[in-house]
Amino acid sequence: MPATIGQVTQQRYDELVAQARDLVREHGRIQFMLGDNALEIEPMGPHGGSQPHQTPGLV
Predict the structure, then answer these.
(1) Which of 8, 22, 30, 37 has its CA 20 to 30 A from that of 2?
(2) SS (H, E, C) the chain
(3) Cα separation of 37 and 56, whole Å?
């Protein structure tokens, strides 16, 4: 009888963990791509945006 982890075999567990790791890597890559695309559309100004808050005395 094959070893199980929870309700799945060790082999299936390893497959699921590998798939989950790939998904996490892809998620991170997608977040960076979205951020890069957003910055291309609207680059950040000197203090964080296209219309930074104008407070006297702040540089």
Answers:
(1) 22
(2) CCCEECCEEHHHHHHHHHHHHHHHHHHHHHHHHHHHHHHHHCCCCCCCCCCCCCCCCCC
(3) 32
**C-alpha distances in Å from residue 38, one per residue of 6, 15, 29, 56, 58:** 42, 35, 14, 29, 26
Q: Which residue has the tokens 């989950």?
A: 20
Structure tokens, 7: 């309700």
16 vs 4: CA distance, rounded Å: 13
Q: What is the pLDDT of residues 19-49, one digit of tens each?
A: 999 999 999 999 999 999 999 998 877 665 5
What's residue 36's pLDDT?
A: 95
